[in-house]
What does this fold into?
Amino acid sequence: MKVFKAIKEGAQLVYGYRRYIFLVYGINFLLALALASIVAADIEASLGNSLSAESLRRGFDNLWYQGFSAGAQGVSETFDPSVAGIGAVFNGLDEMLQGKMLSQHPGILWSALSYWLLWCFLSAGFITIYGQVKLSFFRGAEKFFLRFLILSLGAGLIYILLFSAVLPLMDQFVEQISRDFIDERPLFLYTVGKYLLLWGMICFVSMLLDYSKIATVRWNIPRKSIHLAPRAALDFLRHYPFRSLGLYLMNGVFWFLAMGIYWLIAPGGGERWWVSIFFVIIIGQIYIVIRIALKCLFYASETRFFFSGYEIPEQARPATNPAEQTVS
Amino acid sequence: MGIIKQIYIYMLGMLILLGGSLDAASDSLRMSLRDERAISNYTMDVRLDTKKKMLFATTQLSWKNTTSLPTAELRFHLYYNAWRNDKSSYLTSVRYRNTDLSKYGKDDWAWCEITSMRIQADSFYTGLEVTPALEYIQPNDGNIHDRTVLRLPLRRPVFPGETIRLEFTWEEKIPRPFNRTGVISDYYFFAQWFPKIGVLEYEGDWNCHQYIQTEYYSNFGTYDVKLTVPTGWVIGATGREIETVDNPDSTTTHRFYQEAVHDFAWTTSPYFKVINRRFESANLPPVDMRLLLMPDHLDKEERYFQSTANALLYYGTWFFPYPYGHITIVDPAFQSKSGGMEYPTFFTGGTRWLSPVGTRQPESVTIHEAGHQFWYGLVANNEFEHAWMDEGFNVYSQHRIFRHYYPRPVLSKRYFEGFLPLVFSAVKTNNRTDGSDRYRGFYSALKRDAMARPSWEHGPGAYGVNAYNQPALMLQTLENYLGWETFQQVLAAYFQQWKYNHPRPEDFFAVVNDISGQDMGWFFDEAYYSSNIFDYGVGKVSSKKVRPLKGYVEDQENIIWNEQGDDNSETNYLSRAYVRRWGEAIFPMTVRLTFSDGEVIEEKWSGKERWKEFTYTRPAELVQVEVDPNHQLALDVNYTNNSWTKSPEKKAAAWKWASKWMLWVQHMLEFMAFFS
It folds into this structure.
């Protein structure tokens, strides 16, 4: 299957099952809202009846913020004005890039880990419906959750290894090589190279994980043989290195494109009234929905690509008969 | 010095010895000796060996005793010995003890040794080799591993008014950059690099601290310095280059000369691009600006020049015209740790490869360091002990430029290991003199040390607050309290009185009192001598309808019973507002009360009581109360509690920002989902 065809079929499936995107969005929204309510209450309490509320509403009140941040506790400690506009994306992206996702405030970390766990469950449902296996979203999710969890934990260990062992080694290398640099630009290029290499490995693991999941669904690979799933995925990637990479990059391009558009239109904090505040919230939420949809597009296009005629190799064949899970 | 002045000094010295008032005499003497521009004069010949990364030099020093007492010793700073070993007082100081030295190899450390010293023959001295008499001393902490102060005992004292001439040779190992000096690649920056004589105070004591955690202090003098570096390398230094000689060994000797300065720093590298421009402004003398720019910052040329010109213009207009006629701006090399530092007629800025205008890099550091040409360069306080007198004055002055002539600052943040900046133009922040809340840790640092404590003794975190932020806010508060016209006169008079000299805090306080015509001692007692904090706020506020009179009332000629008032009776509100003094420090306050009919009442409050109640019975409801509404007291550590409004917009404000934070969390969740 060609990359564009996989994207097109994937997009149709994503649109067809859009209700599940909103389900995911709803969970994302509620998790974040629960935490945001605490922050809002803390901000409100710190403002009291002060006129600082007025200046904070109209823009930002840095004098208030310095006092607030010095005394903030709990998740409110993490509040800072750089969450305005594209900062809300960049702050997270930067932490992700450098592998600092696990060093978040406990309140946010637990929410993020819960969400990660939820996605292990939901991705099973999505791949089931995108693979058009004769199972419903939730039946598929239920059936494959534990297998996906094992695969995700395995990948997670590799991610942790990459961030905690490989990245520091690369840091050390770049630090040594750039020790006497007196021009910032070559160091920037080395740093770009470092992250390209690191994220090349991470994306490979991510692709492997995605196709392992897809293989698990396609051939109903049982839990005790789940180690065969990455083998099947690896074999698939060996067969279609360029197309699978092309598909991944194409999806990546969509992701960056969406971010770029949001960057252009994301309001930065100048809104003053409830209507405009609400409008800004809506824009941000639409972007979250788009992000979730794009993640689904990753799964959908990869699933269609994998399901389009590729057969399981002999050595990766599980003990059970995969024919039970027929492809529609 | 004229003979009459010498006699005067001797007589004054005698008076002191005879038991006169030391304080009165020394103050008088300090005033009479003002504007001494040639106490410590250096002629140096320095060769840079780029292969060995060493300096080889000879120095001829003439030093004049301008105090009231003879001295039987000389003391010198050998700053480079601060990085001679890891037990030095610098590397074990509160400020630097956590410096990561793991990556410093043998070649990265430093030392400085005087290999020979002679007293030159003249009318007082016969010429003497004194090298064996040199000894390292540790006047501050007794740390025997510290070799940053060298003492030369003298067989014959140097009497007041006399000049002693020394000649010494010395060698120096150049470190990997430590605290704005050293070498990285082919970029050399030399600051506090030569054996420098300390300051003999008017009371006869040597002020020659070990190099621990503060900056510097020296007498004014003339520097005539020859610097030999590889041919083709660009060089920048204190003073003007007056001679260049190419040597047969592929080196070039550059001679720099400068009078009436108290330090000499220089830099050299083959990578600098040199750009010259002239600052010209009506009513101010022209200044030749020389910019040494690194290749990755070529696009910052205009911003460096504009910032320097703004400093020369506004400081020159407000305080005193820049007198030297030339200034060298160094764009420091990446990783050189030499950015953001001031030296006479020469300073380093600092920027990044990507640095859009909203980041204020290099504007902020350039104006600050150019500003130090005035507060430090010309009015040269003792930075060891009163760092606030140049840093605080300079932060205040720098931000006065920003407050009045630049757009309001905005938030900026760097991503991707600091390479990529993002400017949040909608998130306005503050200038450093806008208010005390600007500083994290401000409160705890204030409670640790008062500004009056010598700078080199400040505890962890307190140095920055007490040297920079608190004094800048103190000066901003003074400006607000006295008015700019008066305060500008204060600063100009202080400058005029203490240029080319070393004022102490009391000297500034005296000028404030003198020019303003007010005794501001009460303010300095709070803001300078004590660690009290200022915090005023609005306490409880109430405004309730007054129930109409119940009872017999007169209605024209009749007396009638009034049960609850009638529709025609006027509705009154009884309004009470409590204002509070939460901090220990006292400052007179203005309290502004706004009523629902638009009427505004301003009350004065001495600010001395812990609380004060304002009560009104008026036909309109009290809707807003503000203490210090014009934010006169910039030192107030919590400005949020300075106001009360009946209808705060706190829900909209809180949710506006909480929703942005929520969006960040949502994205964090999605980023986490990537790994699922």
Observations:
- The radius of gyration of chain B is 30 Å.
- The mean pLDDT of chain B is 91.
